Amino acid sequence: MEKGSFWELAKGLFKENPVFCLVLGLCPALAVSTSIDNAIGMGAASTFVLLCSNFIISIIRNKVPTKIRIPIFIVVIASFVTIASLIMQAYLPALNKSLGIYVPLIVVNCIILGRAEAFACKNNVLDSLLDGLGMGIGFTLSLSLISIIREILGTGALKFFGTTLFSIPIEPAMVFILAPGALLVMGLLLGLFAHIRNKKYEVTCCEVKE
Amino acid sequence: MNSLFAIIIGAIFVNNFILTRFLGLCPFIGVSKKTKPALGMGLAVVFVMTLASMVTWLAYTFILIPLGLEYLQIIVFILVIATLVQFVELFLRKTNPILYKALGIYLPLITTNCAVMGVALLNVQENYSFIEASVFGISAGVGFTLALMLMSGIRERLELSDVPKAFDGIPIAFIVAAIMSMAFLAFSGMI
Questions:
Q1: How many CA atoms lie within 13 A of A12 on its CB side?
Q2: CB-based contact A179 B25, cutoff 8 Å
Q3: B112 touches chain A (CB under 8 A)
Q4: How far apart are CA B56 and CA B39, in angstroms?
Q5: Residue A168 CB contacts under 8 Å (≥ 6 apart), including other chains
Q6: What SS3 state is found at A158?
Q7: Is B124 helix (H, G, I), strand (E, B) or coil?
Q8: Rounded-to-integer distance, Cα A137 and Cα A131, Å
């Protein structure tokens, strides 16, 4: 890697941020970003799955026949999602309840299969681990950003695992906690990021590329 | 009968898969630029969703529960859906080339569509019977198609309008979706 290992970690945070630049993993990003607790829980679970699946896939990358690699990747990912889901049910039942079906749905999160296909099956174990970690942290940060905006505007206060960090004296706009708020915040943030980089997006959704 | 009606209205309007549950956003943003591909994608999703809810319901009730393997549902569902999509593709190619031509290219994309997996998981979560699960599958697909068609109609117009440069493309699509979602909120009092 000519740009060094640190690049693999750092690119997921800004340059190739999965949510805002690659526009992947939108479903969980919007559905669970109603509060910062949910966002961090979802981000942590996805990072765990991403890290483990990148690790295993980069180990087995030379043994897997090319033709059936996608089903194999999916089984690897599904196993780790099952582990994450069982751990969450056992130790964090409240979080598990508020995330609902979006925990098992990590299995169809395009970020994870996307990284397996685009990165882990071509690179060595260390780089793949760093890539998974970077992408996972980038995903968690994006989720947190969306949820902080929605929680402040929607409830007028920011709560972090039960403690109120601060509250602002405005009439909360309920709509930001509801579904339209997520789409609106996402649209505005995407516009903002596009403005900052000042270049046109391409539709880089996994489903279109395949 | 009443509960079936409630499921249909609920899945199409009140809890629309795209606009309230955020399932299947990738194809919603990716394939909604033109009306015709949007219709093809929508029909393919209805087809696969209905079959997937039936098959996963059968697999869950008659294989996983008797064996006490409910915790394997994620792996089993994703494999069942992937296999099903492959079979449907092969079957259509042999028996109905016209339908295959219309749906063909969208079928492989559906495997990773979280809406299909979502239907299977929701059927389990809501304890639906076989009939209810199938009806839920169809209506969720119809709701998906409805949102996709509406969106593609709007985006065809957007092509011609003057959008600020930073919002061109995906960002404006999200803003439009937000307004549509707000409109769909009005249905929430119906059931």
A1: 28
A2: no
A3: yes
A4: 25
A5: A152, A156, A157
A6: strand
A7: helix
A8: 10
In order along its 210 residues, chain A shows pLDDT tens digits of 445 667 777 777 777 787 777 777 787 788 888 888 889 999 999 999 999 999 999 999 888 888 888 888 888 999 999 999 999 999 999 888 888 888 888 888 878 888 888 888 888 888 899 989 999 999 999 999 999 998 888 888 777 777 777 777 777 788 888 888 889 998 999 888 888 876 544 444 433 433
Task: Compute the half-sphere exposure of residue B57: CA atoms within 13 Å on the CB side of its CA.
Answer: 22
Give the integer Cα–Cα distance in Å for A133 and A45. 12
What span, in angstroms and rounded, lies between the C-alpha atoms of A158 and A154? Answer: 10
For strands A163-167 and A157-160, give the pairing: antiparallel
CA distance A39 to A138: 12
pTM, entire model: 0.84
DSSP B69: -
| Under 8 Å between Cβ of B82 and A74 | yes
Beta-carbon contacts of A142 under 8 Å, excluding residues fewer than 6 positions away, are A17, A18, A19, A20, A29
| Residue B59 · residue B125 · CB < 8 Å | no
Distance from the Cα of residue B112 to its chain's centroid: 11
Query: Token pair of A192, please?
Result: 């903002």
* Separation of alpha carbons A158 and A167, rounded Å: 6
With CB atoms and an 8 Å threshold, state whether A198 touches B117. no
Residue A157 main-chain phi, psi, to 5 deg: -150, 160
B137/chain A closest Cα distance in angstroms: 16
Residue A154 dihedral angles phi and psi, to the nearest 5°: -85, -30
Q: How many CB atoms lie within 10 A of CB B91?
A: 11
Nearest CA in chain B to A23: B26
